[in-house]
Amino acid sequence: MRRGILLTLFFSITLALTGCATPSHDNDQSWYFSVVAPQHYKVWVEHLEFEKSGTRHWRMPMGNVECCWKGPNGPLGTGGRMSPFPNIIGIQWFSFAEQKFYQRLIELPENLPDLMRRKVEEKTSTGTSMGPRDQLVIGLAPGGEVVLWIMNQPGSEIEVARMQANPIKGDASWYKTRTQSYLKENDDYLKKHGIPTTGW
After folding, report:
1. PROSITE patterns attached here (predicted)?
2. Residue-level pLDDT at 27
3. 138 contact partners, CB below 8 Å, separation of at least 6
4. Mean pLDDT of 83-101
5. How far apart are CA 54 and CA 21, in angstroms?
C-alpha cells in the first residue's frame, strides 16, 4: 500500500511540473500497450499507471508477466488499450528471480506518437499491408532494466528507449507461494545460467 502511494505521489509531482496539457491529436488513432519479461525471469507487476497530463490518469491491472521478450512471439505480452496516448507511465514490479522490487516513472518522448503513426509493412492472413506501429511494449528485465519498443507485429519492433528502474524496499515474503511455484519451474535454469543484469 505504501509503495502504491509513493507511485501516485510521483505522478502528482510530475503533473504539477508539466502544467496544462496540449490539445490531443490522437483521436484518429488507437494505441495499445503490452508488458513483457524475458523467458525464465518472470515478474509480478504490482502497479501500472498512465497519465495524460491535464487530461486523464488511470491504472491498469497486470499481475503476472513472463513472456515474450524476443523470438517469433516477441516482444509482445499481456496488455490493453491506451486512451488517450499518455505522456507519463509509472510501473512497479517484483522480480521472482532476484526477489527484489523495482519502480520507475517513465516520461515518454514528445515525438513518440508521430513516430508510431508512421506506417510500416505488416503481414496478415489476407496478405501484406501497411500499418502504424501502434503498440508500445514495456520490457522489464533483471537488474531493473526497462526497455521500450514500438511495433505493429513481432518483427517490426524498434527500440525507442532504455532506462534503469529504482530498487525499492518491499517484503518478498508476500510472494512466498508464487516464488515457490516459480522456482519449481525455473530453478534448474537459474542455476545453469544465473541472473544476467546486463545485456538485455
Report:
1. PROKAR_LIPOPROTEIN
2. 57
3. 33, 34, 35, 36, 89, 91, 106, 146, 147, 148
4. 97
5. 5
Question: Cα 10 to the chain's mean position, in Å?
Answer: 17
Percent of the chain with pLDDT over 90: 74
Q: What is the pLDDT of residues 104-159, one digit of tens each?
A: 999 999 999 999 999 998 887 788 889 999 999 999 999 999 999 999 998 899 99
State the average pLDDT over residues 171-183: 97
Scan for cell 496478415, then name that residue. Answer: 124
What is the pTM assigned to this prediction?
A: 0.86
- Judge if the upstream peptide bond of residue 68 is cis by omega within 30 degrees of 0: yes
- Distance between CA atoms of 161 and 121, rounded to whole angstroms? 22
CA distance 160 to 170: 30
Residue 7 pLDDT class (50, 70, 90 cuts): low
Strands (E), the chain: 31-36, 43-52, 56-59, 63-65, 78-82, 88-95, 100-107, 119-124, 127-132, 135-141, 145-151, 158-164, 166-168
Under 8 Å between Cβ of 29 and 134: yes
Distance CA(121)–CA(123), nearest Å, equals 7
CA 16/CA 25 separation, integer angstroms: 22
187 and 195 Cβ atoms separated by less than 8 Å: no
CA 124 vs CA 54, 81, 118, 128, 153: distances in Å: 38, 21, 18, 6, 10
Beta-bridge partner residues of 129? 122
Contact 148/160 with Cβ under 8 angstroms? yes
